Amino acid sequence: MKLIILNDYDQVGEWAAKYIRNKIINFNPGPDRFFILGLPTGGTPLGCYKKLIEFYKKGEISFKYVKTFNMDEYVGIPRNHPESYHSFMWNNLFKHIDIKSENTHILDGNAANLVEECDSFEEKIKAAGGIDLFVGGIGPDGHIAFNEPGSSLLSRTRVKTLAQDTILANARFFDGDLSKVPTMALTVGVATVMDAREVMILITGVHKAFALYKAIEEGVNHMWTVSAFQQHPQTVFVCDEDATLELRVKTVKYFRGMMHVHNKLVDPLPPK
Amino acid sequence: MPTNKSVSKAPITQFVNCRILRDHKLQREDLWVREGRILDPEKLFFDEEGYADQRVDCEGLIIAPGFIDVQINGGYGIDFSQATSNVRGGVALVAKKILEHGVTSFLPTLVTSPPNIYHKVGTTSTPVLSTCPVSHHCCHLEGPFISLEKKGAHPEQYLRSFQSGGMLDLIETYGTLDNVAMVTLAPELPNSEKVVRELAQRGITVSLGHSVANLSQAEEAVQNGASFITHLFNAMLPFHHRDPGIVGLLTSDQVPQDRTVFYGMIADGIHTNSAALRIAHRAHPTGLVLVTDAITAMGLPPGRHTLGQQVIEIQGLHAYVAGTKTLSGSIATMDMCVRHFKQASGCSVEQALEAASLHPAQLLGITRCKGTLDYGADADLVLLDDAINVRATYIAGQEVWRK
After folding, report:
1. Which is nearest to B237 in space by CA: B260, B258, B268, B216?
2. Which residues form a coiled coil (chain A) (predicted)?
3. Is the separation of the CB atoms in B211 and B150 below 8 Å?
4. Residue B135 has pLDDT above 60, yes or no
């Protein structure tokens, strides 16, 4: 694991966006060689998306040969509901960049057969050749996507009932009215994300600090599903100062000491 | 090209680099148009996997819904109340010229006239073709069922009352009500209640004006279906603190809950004092509808012009009866009214633009397709700079005028 510790939310968004940008450019995608990106929703990646849009507008990056697979979507709310993950991705990323709709994949929470929808999503990932970089966030209860505490670390894309904690955390997007928050969602499984060739997790804010501690300093445990990535060969955790508040001083010092090396990963690449 | 063409093969235009008026705010969003209507780009992306064929760079301009003028008597030498040999051509000429002022829909207004004028002009108008009733095919009949005392410039000999009981008088006078969008009448005339109710039931907007009605008469008319006031303050009793008259409708508590009383304002800085404009706006901001009430002389160059029986002299923004200082009518243009209204009332750009687009559309009950930039609405657009000068006008997504 690489633990990237930055000062604040904005720096996290910028570092992550630069990392993604450099990955795509180094991959050198083309019409028969797409870069496959897994994407999250929520407050954490917003800053990263804004920066990616900036890089696109400056001409530093193109999404023409990028395919995306989102982690999750609510069950039962209309696709054009302002809080659906389809709306989120459209408003916060897709409408600002040059990605083609047929290269984006988001689970359909209104599919007639939800199990089939999940299975077919796994097939689509396989057909695309697997995910090159899966970007994700972490819940206050340590979940990755909607893999709530107790989710199998070998789980695949499936229907999940949401934990009360998650519903509470999401209430702010539904006018603070708990009765309006969806209770079920379709989500990629822990193993689905583990299959990616590389994983990048973004963690910001003091309310995520305990989850980060459980994820990287304690053991692999299905109660804190992000801990599964301790067993992934290529994981990057990008966090801000506040998110490190529950970590050992030793851990923080060790990784801060590596920043001068890790920052090379986001240096601007020489033009072709 | 839309890649799966599952809904339509028609080309898609994307207006970029603009600020659009939506949900009462100017927002930095692109505007998408297909087949003359505003398109939902999210639906296009997910359902049709489509994207734009053509991009129009708006260079930072504001896009507002095209302006709607519900009271305009003519312009550029054309008088809508004259039975010329080419009524349709006259209306079309004005329609084309006022695109320069950002007006994409209007109601040609006929002042009090003899029955033969109504019959001639009414039958010449082409029947409404589009699903949305406001184009220049629907007119506003201002009179002749108005008050003698408040006739203003209307010819006295053609004023009428509801002697045959109401609707009969209307049909006798107007001939047909097929192309009528609005009627201005004085509600104090006996038998007016039935007329107001019947017109409102037919979907024709009833407006109170050229009247000496007191507040209760005006309120009764509103309860019977009247929903507009023709050029507030002009041709009605002045506000009085014990009987506010028609002006009192702005704050009346007798207006049914689900309804709004709208009022026309000629905000040219001449027909209404700025302080009076502000009083009305502050009392009832959501009902204000900007109108030009422009006469034949609007759009003509300064100097003397003979129009019908009158000689008019245009000096700057004023039109006088030649040789006098008597105003002969308004020569205001709609964009000028929007600018003046904003400056005089201190309102926001959004409110000024809505007074000329959303509010008239709400008045006429046509917000499904006019007066907004909502998905599915007709793409009648006006592009403006921050000083509210018109730079380009579009009808059904096609550019029809550019500065």
Report:
1. B216
2. none
3. yes
4. no
Q: Flag whether residue B315 sits within 8 Å of chain A, measured between CB atoms.
A: no
Residues of A in contact with B3 (CB under 8 A): 100-102
Q: Where are the beta strands (DSSP E) in B288-357?
A: 288-290, 303-307, 310-315, 318-321
CB A47 within 8 A of CB A12: yes
First to last CA, chain A: 30
Tens of pLDDT along B289-327?
A: 999 999 999 999 998 887 766 788 898 888 888 888 877
The residue assigned the tokens 């054309």 is B78
Cβ pair B121, B152 in contact under 8 A: no
Concatenating the DSSP letter of every residue in A215-268 gives: HHTS--BTTBGGGGGGG-SSEEEEEEGGGGTTS-HHHHHHHHTTHHHHGGGGSP
Q: How far is CA A223 from CA A189, A206, A208, A219, A220, in A?
A: 14, 20, 15, 10, 9
Can you tell me the distance from the alpha carbon of A124 to that of A115, in angstroms, rounded to the nearest whole number? 14
The shortest CB-CB distance from B42 to any of A90, A100, A102 is to A90
B3, B30, B41: residue with CB nearest A102:
B3
Which residues are CB-neighbours of A179 under 8 A, at least 6 positions away?
none
CA angle A242, A244, A246 (to 5 degrees): 110
Query: Catalytic annotation on B178?
Result: no
Distance CA A56, CA A72 (A): 25
Tokens found for residue B271 = 């027909």
Hey, which bits of A17-173 come out as E strands?
35-39, 66-70, 72-74, 104-105, 133-136, 158-161
ipTM for the predicted complex comes to 0.90
- Cβ atoms within 10 Å, residue A14: 18
pTM assigned to the model: 0.90
What pLDDT, in 10s, does the model give residues A215-259? 999 999 999 999 999 999 999 999 999 999 999 999 999 999 999
Which run of H or E residues covers position B394?
Answer: strand B390-395
Label the pairing between strands B62-65 and A104-105.
unpaired
